[in-house]
Amino acid sequence: MQFDVNEMRKPFIELGNMACVDDEFTFYYDESNNIRKLHLTNTGLNVEKACNFVLAGIIHKGKSHEADFEYLKASINLQKTAKEIKLKQIGKGTFDKILTSRRLSNFLTWILENDFYIHYFNLNVLYWSIVDIVDSIIDNLDFANKQLFVPSHMLVKSDLYKVIASDQESFLKTLREFEYPNIKEDKISGFTVFLIDFVNANSSILDNDRKYLLNKFMEGAKGSSELFFIMNEKDHILISDFFEFYLRNTFLFKNSKHIFDTETEIEAIFSKYELSDNGQVIDNYAFVDSKSMYEVQVSDVIAGLLAKYFTFISDTNVDDLKNIKSNLNDTQKNNLKLLETIIDKSDNVSHGFFTKIASEDECLKSNYFMHNQERI
After folding, report:
1. For the chain, which residues make up each domain, given as ranges?
2. pLDDT tens, 90-136?
3. Contact between residue 225 and residue 188 where contact means Cβ atoms under 8 Å apart
């Protein structure tokens, strides 16, 4: 099968106001929290904890660079017996604990001094698994309610996720009983009743205005004869693979080279498709063993660090987050500033380097902790 990269990338570029997507870069990738599949079981999910999936790494302009990896290895005191550069050699524990590492200071400074950028794709897998409920209900709304809820659909998705997370075990158990995300036509009525009742029973965690908005939205599900985005799928399979997230940058940055750490399942899916640019097949990606490429090893550290960060943001409530931020020591503040500087430097080149699929709460908490934006 052949993909036309120009057809695929156009809506992303227009919607995201992305610059420099036609420039030539070299992207390096590694992933963290790669569960490969997510599905419903009798006890909830097939994983103990559905942490955010992160695909991330470093970028440089053009085809080559002059960075000195031996200097990097010395600056982080990498043992000569170490086969690869790994996050655990730089820092351990939760994100705030890793920020205490002076090796992290040296690592991030090396990234800046060698003019690397970074990129990341951050996916809250549970949030991603339930947002189609909202899109399916919107699809059934009458014109007046569409005018009301389409502009606020991201708020509705975020609030539904928050309500679900407050009683996740019960919600997921019932989803499985309805064979979600493959709701059969004769089960639609029962499913919508469950949704309305569940939200009504658990929405007290929202402020009054948001509670009213979410409950009013859910009432729009009454009488639905179709839930388009959560029908005709496979029973219980929330995420079958992460291929589309690996694919994204290969068509968005079509003139760049994309080098991934070995991932057999994803590589096998890639082999089934061809990317074409105005009819010409392009070959702009490769899979390599990280042991043979320092750039991928550095990307492993970036992916691991950001996965720690997004997990920390997701797991920490607002009050605790404020307390932790106000009590950071000088090393922690310096490392956080270095990471912010790298992200801002990269974002100034292209917004396309970063993608977040996460709840509004996570985005607001991240903006507060990383970028000092006070709205939280």
Report:
1. 2-124+240-371, 126-237
2. 999 999 999 999 999 999 999 999 999 999 999 999 999 999 999 99
3. yes
